[in-house]
User: Which sequence fits this backbone?
């Protein structure tokens, strides 16, 4: 017996509604600010600090973005 009626349907990734333009613009602004800060620190501190600042910036943006997409 095939019991497909009781099987939960998994939504495809294309079934989600697109996020509002305001949220997408906020993500863009946050990313551009982090890139600008990394550039300023690179100019001031030199190339040795660039890796640390870029890594920290990417990590912070990732955490911020993932917490916004859950809510």
Assistant:
């Amino acid at each position: 017996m095939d019991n497909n009626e009781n099987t939960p349907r998994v939504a495809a990734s294309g079934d989600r509604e697109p996020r509002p333009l305001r949220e997408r613009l906020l993500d863009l602004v946050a990313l551009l600010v982090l890139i600008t800060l990394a550039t300023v620190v690179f100019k001031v501190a030199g190339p040795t600090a660039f890796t640390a600042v870029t890594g920290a910036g990417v990590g912070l943006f990732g955490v911020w973005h993932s917490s916004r997409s859950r809510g």
Remarks:
- The mean pLDDT is 76.
- The CA atoms of residues 28 and 39 lie 17 Å apart.
- The two ends are 40 Å apart (CA to CA).
- Residues 21-45 form the longest helix (25 residues).
